[in-house]
Amino acid sequence: ILILALVIYALATVFWLFVLKSMPLRVAYPFAALGFFIVPLLAYFFLNEPLRWTSFAGASIIMLGVYVSSL
Q1: Which of 4, 19, 35, 63 minimizes the number of CB atoms within 10 Å of its CB?
Q2: Would the CA dihedral through 33, 1, 41, 44 be positive or negative?
Q3: What is the pTM of this model?
Q4: What's the CA gap between 9 and 11, in Å, rounded?
Q5: Per-residue CA distances from 61 to 35, 65, 71 (Å)
Q6: Each residue's pLDDT tens digit, 9-63
Q7: Do 16 and 32 form a contact (C-beta atoms < 8 A)?
Q8: Are 19 and 25 in contact (CB under 8 A)?
Q9: CA-to-CA distance for 16 and 36, rounded, in angstroms?
């Protein structure tokens, strides 16, 4: 499992570098911030982790900050 996780992480890093090479950071970073919404949802569905409102409140604040910084 650890090897699989490292391979996925390496592929994600290469993909992120490709994205950064093809578009400006101000455009690409908001998509990275979506991880703060996606990860809790995936943990809920695949790992039976509880969904807490604090996770979504924090993710919303982060997304608001990303939005404000992109203005």
Answers
A1: 4
A2: negative
A3: 0.62
A4: 5
A5: 13, 6, 16
A6: 999 999 999 999 999 888 888 788 788 888 889 999 999 999 889 988 988 898 8
A7: yes
A8: no
A9: 16
